[in-house]
Design goal:
The protein is built from 41 helices and 41 strands. The chain is α+β, with helices and mostly antiparallel strands and 1304 residues long. The protein has a nine-stranded mixed beta sheet, with helices on both faces. Strands 23-22-34-33-32-31-30-29-28 form a nine-stranded antiparallel beta sheet, sandwiched between helices. The chain has a six-stranded antiparallel beta sheet with strand order 9-8-10-19-11-17. The longest helix has 40 residues.
Length: 1304
């Protein structure tokens, strides 16, 4: 749009899309009112309060009365807006056919009028149908600048009412960046610099509270009155942990710096002084024009200006951005593409939205050669993508560096914390309480002892007030601080001595164990998918053990339970169904379209219906033939699929008939497998789409090439649930072709003749049949557009598509103009086959006590059919169907279902069934009944004489709208948790997350969500564990997940085998670490009680430090990675064994207290047996300390060996090697003359008493534990113990049978 140079501050009147002589008005709010009236839903848009005081619209008869102005300055009232939304007749009478040039002329004249008016309000009046409007003076003065290019003049703020658009001057980076100072293209993914590394890394590490605890301990040990250990030695454990982590972080960040340098110093061609020259990436600026060649990466976010294709088409691969491997198509606007192909320089202005993370949307418009046109996501190529199948492209930079969408999306998703780690913090709190009590006991005992011996303090070592010994200290006062302070110092010294009661090494141990577990999960060949060549992926290392505690699995259907490889199976055309017995043979001759010596050959074979082929080739002009023709034309045209042509040779008998000896093989690239299947089906029936540009498509119709101009495309969205395309035929006729879900299509069909009603009823009947067969269905319709309808739509479409605010909503309302009064063409049925092993996997999960809920966007009938075929639903289940259209109806349906089947509230069920066990009758049983989890399945009361009727809840997304947003959540929760299966149909992505949150927020059960598409991301991130499927819909789900795999059937092995192993290992690992450190601390505690509460130690400083870091750490790591209580075959054969995880049998508070009692006993044995053995001997305290050190290491390792279920070579090396390493370290430490324990080990090892004492300690300490395990396994065995015995019996049985065969 041009502006008048004579004006000082051009006034922006707003978006006057259609201004006519008999009605003059201004302001974008009037457009907004039009949007409201045009839409099917009568919602109100927000009024721009900066431009208007108040507008009131009155409807009367057949004409619109003038707007009455309210000068009170009050904003709109809701009642007045209601009048606006109800006045739909307004736009039927308001003429919208004005040409664009006339509108621009009138806008400019009104701008001049507004500039000449100095008053606050401007009144614009017209005759006839008059609209009077009051406009508030803008608050900010508009500025005007001339462009460098004389052919264009731009008003920089002509979109000031839209949210601060970013202005990009094409090929003018100086002007673009001087005013706005956009970021450069240099990126930085590293966390640290040389200066900030140490403080920042320490700050991040000390976010762990345990590290702060040990830092405080080390600081206390530096004080002279509290120096229990050597000051250097006390810092060793913390420094070791900090250094290891810092080295790891530093190495990772160094790699990031190296990657950043490599990325920032790459080169590309940039237009400089009229020609393209090489420039490194980090110096590229917004506004510069960049040229990219095939297979090169895109350096920044660019609006496409042109490509090697004359139509401006380009193919890009977005794998680095969203993980999708299929090619995407991007278009340059025809206006700029033509200028690029002509070799001219391009100059213009782009207004775009501020930088944001949404990689699937881009809202902007461009002014070029005095025309404004819209830009969308299909016109932008993003940083990180690669150019494919296109020689070169030229684009202008709009976002650079850290503002690119790739960099804005580079932040990692919030990490999830393991459930066991939460429980571990609870037990750590208990250990802290024990530590506090022990320190209080020592401090209180110290105070009492000093009080009792206060008269002897002058003669006692360490406590006398004055030195009496000869030397330089003779006569000096001793450092005695008095009774209160000595008691307080004793308390602090005790904390230092008992510090390892809180196991700092447990954090590192758990990280290493999880890393090892992840390695074995990744390398498991049973979870390798050969079809996609994908291995199992561990994308989150801190929740491995949660896989063994899952109680609810929430699964998507399409692409997760099914293959998402669509096959066209059925078609309903003009009320008749085709494809009931599709011949699965080679392509029929009719499918190979021969024209001008060229034949189109599809990449894959598609079965066709011969009767439908004959109909399409009849020379009839009847309604049925026309409907069939438009049906397949809609399949070929109404999509965003791109045809890719490759040359090949023909091996068909038709080859002799061709003038050329070539075959044009065609493949279709699309973002949706559904669309690809439909376009391929259309090609198989003779309607081959073989060329697509931004402005037209070319379809080969049975050998005749037809070019159709694409006037506009309304893409599919989750609100409309349909897509439409407006095309102009070669004859000049204009049609709108629409396809969509049946729920959204039948409501917009025209009310026709009796024949139309018959066709509609037949089609609906066919759709029900297709859905019951598990097919995915779509409805197709079309209608002709008159010239008046086309002009109105184009007028609205142009303004909506160039809008920078609410573009999606405005386009949706524009689509409603043409998506109405449609003629029904027919429907399609596409088969999406079940993945291999899905029924078996679901049955195993159900036997394991895991509830599987399916959340899908498909039709209810389709979902039920798939549920039956995958054994999710069974014939004996009673289906409760909730399909409500209002809050009251949903409330009534839920209440009726609860009363009919006797469903109690959640709390009532928990209290009444607290002690009951649940054994599903159809489950595979072990020799004994297994226990129920904390979430028992409640059997309903008698219904038709049947007790314990299994229930299945089926609910649609429309009902969930009212249930999840109202106070009906608890009702749904009570009913859903009483059902064995829940099937949610037609659900939106956020509703999926809402269902997961319904269970997650109201129970303590672990949830797992599994899906394959972008619509599953919110569900995956909401669940405790998220699993992504590497499927056909890209990798958005994988990138947002914690674990990823190729097929749903691998979930069975992931949970039942690896989940079980990981939970058992980590549960035992935590308990053992608590025991290992507690027994050592309690041993020191008994010693302090026997040494006048003096907090002295018999152990050397290094022995205390090495105990948890070197002496006993390796065995715990190896056992935590390699130990297996059962083989994978047994775990898969008896899925009920998985229940031990969600029943928390491997780690719970009861086991913690049993462990602590056992630890107390072992510590007493450990301390007092050596004390009484050497009571009358002459060995010194350091010799006793050496004995205690060896004894405690031997004891805890034998304790571990008693609990190892499967011995591997590495396990033997770790357990017995740990004892040997301890002896070696003791020999080295005792060989250093400066240490007080010099040579003690050599004297002790000579005595048989030393070895007998260690043996006696081990036997006596572990004897109660041994008897406890024997009695428990004999009289109260667990399922796991029974299964272990079964494995042993089978193993020995096989050995005996082999021996018998050998002897025979």
């Amino acid at each position: 749009m041009t502006t008048d140079n004579t004006t000082n501050s051009p006034r922006q009147i707003g978006s006057l899309s259609c201004l006519c002589p008999n009605a003059s008005f201004s302001s974008s709010v009037f457009d907004d009112a039009q949007w409201n009236l045009l839409g099917e839903q009568q919602h109100q848009d927000k009024v721009n309060e900066d431009e208007f005081d108040q507008i009131e619209l009155e409807e009367g008869g057949d004409e619109i009365k003038p707007l009455e102005l309210d000068h009170s300055g009050s904003p709109f009232k809701e009642s007045q807006l209601g009048v606006l939304s109800q006045s739909r007749v307004f736009f039927e009478q308001f003429p919208l056919e004005c040409p664009r040039e006339e509108r621009i002329r009138r806008i400019l004249s009104m701008e001049r009028h507004s500039n000449g008016n100095n008053h606050d309000n401007i009144h614009i009046n017209g005759n006839g149908n008059v609209a009077a409007l009051e406009i508030e003076k803008p608050r900010s003065k508009h500025r005007f600048r001339h462009s460098q290019h004389k052919s264009l003049q731009f008003d920089e703020d002509n979109l000031s009412h839209e949210d601060n658009p970013r202005l990009i001057y094409i090929n003018d980076p100086r002007r673009t960046n001087d005013k706005y100072e956009f970021t450069g293209n240099e990126i930085r993914t590293s966390k640290y610099t040389i200066i900030t590394f140490l403080p920042k890394n320490l700050f991040i590490q000390f976010h762990r509270v345990a590290y702060l605890y040990f830092l405080a301990i080390a600081a206390l040990n530096q004080l002279p009155p509290l120096a229990v250990f050597g000051r250097t030695v006390s810092l060793f454990p913390l420094l070791f942990v900090l250094c290891v982590t810092a080295i790891k972080d530093g190495y990772e960040d160094w790699r990031r710096h190296r990657s950043d340098r490599k990325e920032n110093n790459r080169e590309t061609l940039v237009c400089q002084s009229g020609e393209f020259k090489l420039k490194i990436w980090k110096k590229i600026q917004a506004g510069e024009v960049v040229q990219i060649f095939a297979n090169e990466s895109i350096p920044c976010d660019m609006v496409l200006l042109g490509s090697s294709d004359p139509s401006g088409l380009a193919y890009i691969q977005t794998m680095n951005l969203d993980g999708e491997s299929n090619l995407k198509t991007r278009y340059a606007r025809q206006e700029t593409a033509s200028a690029v192909s002509d070799g001219g320089m391009i100059s213009g202005l782009i207004r775009c939205e501020p930088p944001n993370r949404n990689i699937y949307e881009f809202t902007a418009n461009m002014e070029f050669n005095e025309h404004r046109f819209p830009l969308s996501q299909s016109n932008i190529v993003l940083r990180g993508c690669q150019l494919k199948n296109t020689d070169w492209i030229i684009g202008v930079v709009v976002y650079a560096g850290q503002e690119t969408k790739a960099m804005l999306n580079s932040a990692a998703s919030p990490s999830k914390r393991s459930r066991l780690e939460g429980y571990m913090n609870r037990e750590t709190l208990w250990l802290s309480i024990f530590l506090f009590i022990m320190c209080l006991v020592v401090a209180f005992g110290m105070g009492l002892w000093l009080l009792r011996h206060k008269d002897q303090l002058d003669t006692l070592p360490y406590y006398r007030k004055i030195y009496f010994t000869p030397g330089r200290d003779n006569g000096k006062r001793y450092k005695y601080y008095g009774l209160p302070m000595e008691t307080f110092f004793s308390f602090l010294s005790s904390i230092i001595v008992f510090q390892i009661m809180i196991p700092i090494s447990l954090y590192i141990t758990m990280e290493l164990v999880r890393l090892g577990q992840s390695y074995f999960m990744i390398e498991d060949n049973h979870m390798y998918d050969s079809s996609s060549d994908s291995r199992f992926q561990c994308r989150s290392l801190n929740i491995n053990e949660d896989l063994g505690q899952i109680r609810y699995v929430f699964s998507d259907k399409t692409g997760t339970l099914t293959e998402n490889k669509m096959e066209f199976q059925r078609a309903s055309v003009y009320g008749k169904s085709y494809g009931s017995s599709l011949p699965m043979v080679d392509l029929l001759p009719e499918q190979n379209i021969v024209a001008a010596g060229r034949r189109w050959k599809l990449k894959s074979e598609i079965a066709v219906d011969s009767e439908l082929i004959e109909l399409l080739h009849k020379d009839l002009t009847g309604d049925e033939r026309i409907a069939a023709h438009e049906f397949f034309l809609t399949l070929a045209a109404c999509n965003t699929v791109i045809p890719i042509l490759t040359h090949g040779t023909s091996s068909s008998c038709i080859k002799s008939e061709l003038q050329e000896d070539s075959v044009e093989a065609i493949d279709y690239q699309g973002e949706s497998p559904d669309e690809q299947a439909l376009v391929a089906a259309a090609s198989a029936y003779g309607y081959t789409l073989f060329e697509r540009t931004s402005g037209h498509i070319v379809i080969d119709v049975n050998g005749e090439k037809l070019r159709f101009d694409v006037l506009g495309l309304h893409e599919f969205d989750s609100v409309r649930k349909r897509m439409s395309v407006v095309i102009r035929f070669p004859t000049g006729a204009v049609k709108v072709l629409v396809k969509g879900a049946d729920t959204s299509m039948f409501s917009i069909l025209a009310n026709g003749t009796e024949m139309d009603d018959r066709i509609r009823n037949s089609t609906q009947s066919h759709l029900s049949g297709y859905s019951s067969q598990g097919l995915r269905t779509l409805v197709l319709a079309a209608r002709d557009l008159t010239d008046e309808e086309l002009e109105v739509w184009q007028c609205r479409y142009e303004d909506a598509s160039t809008s920078l605010t609410d573009r999606v909503a405005k386009l949706r309302q524009t689509a409603a103009l043409i998506e109405c009064n449609l003629k029904l063409l027919g429907a399609t049925g596409i088969e999406d086959k079940l993945q291999e092993g899905v029924p078996e996997a679901i049955e195993s999960l159900r036997q394991a006590g895991i509830k599987v809920w399916v959340l899908t966007g498909d039709k209810q009938e389709t979902a039920i059919s798939i549920g039956l075929s995958c054994k999710l639903l069974t014939s004996d289940m009673h289906q409760i169907i909730i399909n409500g259209n209002s809050e009251d109806e949903c409330r009534s349906l839920l209440a009726d279902a609860k009363s009919k089947y006797g469903v109690k509230s959640w709390r009532g069920r928990n209290s009444s069934l607290k002690c009951k066990k649940d054994a599903e009758k159809d489950y595979l049983e072990l020799p004994v009944d297994t226990k129920l989890s904390n979430l028992p399945r409640w059997h309903a009361g008698k219904e038709d004489g049947i007790l314990g009727l299994p229930l299945a809840l089926i609910i649609d997304g429309n009902s969930l709208v009212y249930i999840l947003e109202k106070d009906l959540e608890s009702e749904l929760f009570d009913l859903a948790t009483s059902c064995r299966v829940v099937l949610c149909c037609r659900v939106a992505p956020l509703q999926k997350a809402g269902i997961v949150d319904l269970i997650k927020s109201r129970t303590d059960d672990m949830t797992l969500a599994i899906g394959d598409g972008a619509n599953d991301v919110s569900m995956i991130q909401m669940a405790d564990v998220g699993v992504g499927i590497c499927g056909q819909e890209g990798r958005q789900a994988v990138m947002a997940s914690d674990f990823a795999m190729g097929q749903f059937q691998f979930l069975k092995r992931l949970l039942l085998v690896h989940g079980h192993w990981n939970y058992q290992r980590v549960g035992y690992l935590i308990l053992y670490n608590f025991y290992r450190n507690a027994v050592f601390v309690l041993m020191l505690f008994w010693y302090i009680l026997c040494t006048a509460f003096s907090t002295t130690s018999a152990l050397t400083d290094w022995s205390s430090v090495f105990y948890s870091v070197i002496y006993t750490s390796i065995p715990t790591i190896v056992v935590g990675i390699l130990d297996k209580d059962l083989s994978h075959k047994t775990l898969l054969l008896y899925p009920k064994l998985y229940g031990s995880g969600y029943r928390h049998e491997a780690y719970n508070l009861r086991l913690f207290w049993i462990m602590m009692v056992d630890t107390l006993w072992q510590s007493l044995v450990l301390f007092y047996i050596p004390l009484y053995t050497y009571k009358d001997s002459s060995i010194d305290i350091w010799s006793m300390g050496s004995l205690w050190t060896i004894a405690v290491v031997v004891l805890v390792n034998i304790h571990l060996a008693m609990d190892v279920r499967r011995w591997e070579v590495f396990t033997h090396f770790a357990v017995w090697g740990s004892i040997i390493i301890t002896y070696a370290c003791m020999v080295v430490l005792d060989s250093i003359p400066v240490f007080p324990n010099y040579w003690t080990i050599y004297h002790l090892a000579k005595s048989p008493t030393y070895w007998l004492t260690i043996l006696l300690i081990t036997v006596v300490a572990l004897l109660p534990r041994f008897f406890f395990k024997v009695v428990r396994q004999t009289f109260w065995p667990s399922d796991i113990q029974i299964a272990r015995e079964l494995e042993i019996l089978r193993k020995h049985g096989n050995l005996e049978s082999k021996k018998d065969q050998g002897s025979s």
